[in-house]
């Protein structure tokens, strides 16, 4: 495996660069944990390797949006079973509902994906099993005009990493490193016992 901390940092960066671009990447769907200690699997849409920020899509009406606004602490868990590598990251999050970045993310989504924001807000009650979508959009792709009301429900979950813990699982002995962002933005790491 790796003998130097800069190799670990490079490996993490490369895995995170690949994750949003490759649906088959085991790190494409991390577990996101909000300040209320609620966890969910989400799709990683983008990773900015210079600023170490993630972009995920969410519904502005989702309970997690209120939680993140009140308490921006967040944790992200990635696991690559084949490589036996776990990355536990921590940072701060923000819900972003307007601006060029949100418009670009909305614009790059398919109409089929955008339809998710037409339905009832996440967590809305129902007497029967439901997708929450209006009946006319169950299994159907709406056109651009039908999606106009969905745009106001679309938001980004932007996460800025402040620290992460890298763990390599091996039968010969696990190896672990921790990294934290310095005030300069550079990562400082050290080896720790698993």
UniProtKB/TrEMBL annotation:
Pfam families: Pyridox_oxase_2. Its EC number is 1.1.1.31. The keyword Chloroplast does not apply. The keyword Ribonucleoprotein does not apply. It is an enzyme of class 1 (oxidoreductase). One of its GO terms (molecular function) is 3-hydroxyisobutyrate dehydrogenase activity. Keywords: Oxidoreductase. SUPFAM superfamilies: FMN-binding split barrel (SSF50475). It comes from the Bacteria. Residues 38-96 form the Pyridoxamine 5'-phosphate oxidase Alr4036 family FMN-binding domain. This is 3-hydroxyisobutyrate dehydrogenase. It comes from Erythrobacter ramosus. The lineage of its organism: Bacteria, Pseudomonadati, Pseudomonadota, Alphaproteobacteria, Sphingomonadales.
């Amino acid at each position: 495996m790796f003998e130097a901390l800069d190799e670990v940092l490079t490996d993490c960066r490369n895995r995170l660069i690949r994750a949003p671009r490759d649906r088959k990447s085991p790190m494409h769907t991390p577990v996101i944990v909000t300040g209320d200690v609620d966890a969910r699997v989400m799709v990683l849409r983008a990773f900015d390797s210079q600023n170490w920020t993630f972009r995920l899509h969410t519904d502005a009406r989702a309970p997690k949006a209120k939680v993140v606004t009140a308490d921006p602490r967040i944790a992200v868990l990635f696991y690559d079973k084949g490589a036996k590598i776990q990355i536990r990251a921590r940072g701060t999050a923000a819900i972003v509902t307007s601006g060029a970045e949100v418009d670009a993310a909305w614009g790059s989504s398919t109409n089929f994906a955008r339809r998710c924001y037409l339905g009832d807000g996440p967590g809305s009650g129902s007497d029967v099993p439901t997708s929450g979508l209006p009946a006319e959009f169950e299994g159907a792709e709406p056109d651009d005009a039908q999606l106009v009301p969905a745009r106001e429900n679309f938001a980004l979950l932007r996460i800025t990493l402040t620290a992460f813990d890298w763990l390599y699982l091996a039968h010969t002995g696990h190896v672990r490193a921790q990294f934290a962002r310095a005030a300069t933005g550079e990562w400082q790491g050290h080896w720790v016992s698993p």
